[in-house]
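User: Hi! I'm working on a homework problem where we have to compare a predicted structure to a textbook description. Could you give me the structure for the chain below?
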Amino acid sequence: MAVLITDICINCGACIDECPVEAIVDDEDNPTGEETYYVYPDKCVECVGYHDTPACAEACPTEGCIVWDKCYEGMPCREDIPADARESHQPVIE
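Assistant: Happy to help. Predicted structure tokens:
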């Protein structure tokens, strides 16, 4: 996992078109069955090489909806994010 969409997601769709690697799916395609958008951890690159911060979080109108999660093995992760921020799921944008 790289970034995680929490259950406060309002399913507005602002994030989905911003993802440069199409890692986000809507609630109808969420493999967990939850009624929120979902980030595929094996696709998310935290916008490394694309943007200065994850574009989904920049576009999201709901404060604290998109949070850091642990890095997915083999995928790029932002090295400047402290481990405790990932473990405690701190918001990407505060």
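For your comparison, note the following. Strands lie at 3-5, 24-25, 38-39, 66-68. The two ends are 20 Å apart (CA to CA). Good luck with the assignment!
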